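Researcher: I'm preparing a figure for a lab meeting and need a structural model of a single chain. I don't have an experimental structure, so a prediction will have to do for now. The sequence is pasted below. Please return the structure as tokens so I can convert it later.
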Amino acid sequence: MDEFFSTTLTNLHSNNYNDLTLVIGNESCDLDSAVSALVFANFLTWQYNQIRCKVCTKAHRGEVDLPMKEDIFVPVLNVDRCDYELKTEVVYYFRSKGIKDSDLVFRDDYDLEALVNNSKSKVVLVDHHVLAKRDRFLAPFVTEIIDHRPMDKSEWLYKKDVRSTIETVGSCCTLIAQRIKDLSVLVAKDVDFFNAYPVCTEMLRATIILDTVNFSTDLNKATPHDKDIVQFLESLMKPRDLEADRQREHDSLIAARKNVANLTPAQLLKKDVKIVGDVYIPSFPILVKEFLNRPGALDAVSEALQKNNCSVALLLGMDLTEGLQRDTALYSPKTPEKAVKLSKYLEEATNPSLGLSREQLSGAKDCSYYWQLNLSASRKQYIPTVNTFTANK
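Model: Understood. Here is the structure written out token by token.
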């Protein structure tokens, strides 16, 4: 993988390439998004090198010794470089695999709009298929989408021939691994990529284990497709003690994700956030109740709303210390009536039912606070309901 990083970044920095493909994860930049982008860009580079014919190309060029510009495939972490440290599990895991911060491309490292407009460019979206407002300029360049969220056609801005793999599974890395398998067969290479890049195999497996909470039957986040892919990856890795190895991987990533003691409320609000319309939706690796007990928490929420031109905050919390717990709160300092309306909308949601049980918090009386009884419902299940609410407001 070191050669992939070195060659790709050198050619990108020096503008020494023919076609450019950006593989871009979603704006929350969680481990699923980051690994999906990194592994798929690495695979596309490997595939390109497998199918191109250097001899024919040189003969066609007529001069064997002339340097040839090649296509490059660049993974983009959809977060500013200064915010990378907030993604604690991503930082921990990448560094544990020898991936240096300097190996990575972040969204503010380049003017992405100028980059795609000034070169022969394609964009592959992974772990999302609805572009944030600031990224809508990418839509004409999108050629492929790989995502595990429920289909949302309300903001489908893409060309008719875009290739989409959208399937509701526990982890986008499941679909990335499946796509790599399928494309590898086309070049008669079967499992060659996974064997050539064992670190990619390991990262895909670890991320699926994290996203499915190690295939917890209580939470039911894993699908048969997730299980099949992990078994396939493990058939290549051959761990000695499969169950113990899975649990060790899961626990280490959970600990890294929860390592937020030194983050301020403002940083926690930026750690894993999505914006839907004017609704700001941060997801915490701690309970919302714990976040709201931190000094200055609501002031930080107000500042985040103002900075991002949002009117309502929908805070989502999760804790895995003693079994899974989830909670949520809504807050709107300037338009409290809107938070009340969205609260009622979420209470009455049926697809799925979120199982919201109201509770009054003494330290945050201006918030609508709930325990979430449907433990399987993550932010992915909230977003379609929020989309409908913002469309009908």
